[in-house]
Amino acid sequence: MLHEVKPLDLTVRINDLWDNKWFLLTAGSFTHDEYNTMTIAWGSFGIMWNKPFVQVVVRPTRFTYQFMEKYKTFTLCRFPEKYKTELKLLGSKSGRDINKIKESGLTVKQSTTVEAPCFEEADMIFECNKIYYDDFKPENFLDSGIEKNYPLKDYHRIYFGEILKILEL
């Protein structure tokens, strides 16, 4: 059973979460049955404007991008290791082409405080409200090696989400 953790009480190995555990970023509306999810492994957590936040990035070519643009909230869900295959599928297939959530076998459910859905199988859920966005500007890359991540010039949009609730096993 998941229990609430206050953002200032959260104790995790942040780099391990991003690099090894991954997340599903889900945006849209559970009520209107209009949402999409994608696997992400890049982002950050912190405090900005005196608010706990998560920062995520989405390329404009991703199907999830339109849901991030249209809706004010999103969720991040972490899963036990046994779901790595499902996360790989959700990160490699597009919701434009197939119902990848159905194909994954994961169970979408209503979040407790935001419109964006989350997943029953998650062992950690961040419910977030967007508070800022901007686009990566290649002229501002100070490390020339960063550009190799963008052979199609499809630079990420950065979103900051205020963490409204954290649920954890």
Q: What can you tell me about this protein's structure?
A:
The chain is of the alpha+beta class and 169 residues long. It has a single domain, classed as Electron Transport, Fmn-binding Protein, Chain A (Pnp Oxidase, Chain A, Roll), CATH 2.30.110.10. 18% of the residues lie in helices and 38% in strands. The chain contains 4 helices and 10 strands. The longest helix is centred in the middle third of the chain and has 9 residues, at 84-92. The radius of gyration is 15 Å and the shape is globular. The relative contact order is 0.23.
Overall average residue pLDDT: 97
What's the CATH class label? Mainly Beta
Distance between the termini: 6 Å
Please tell me what the overall shape is: globular
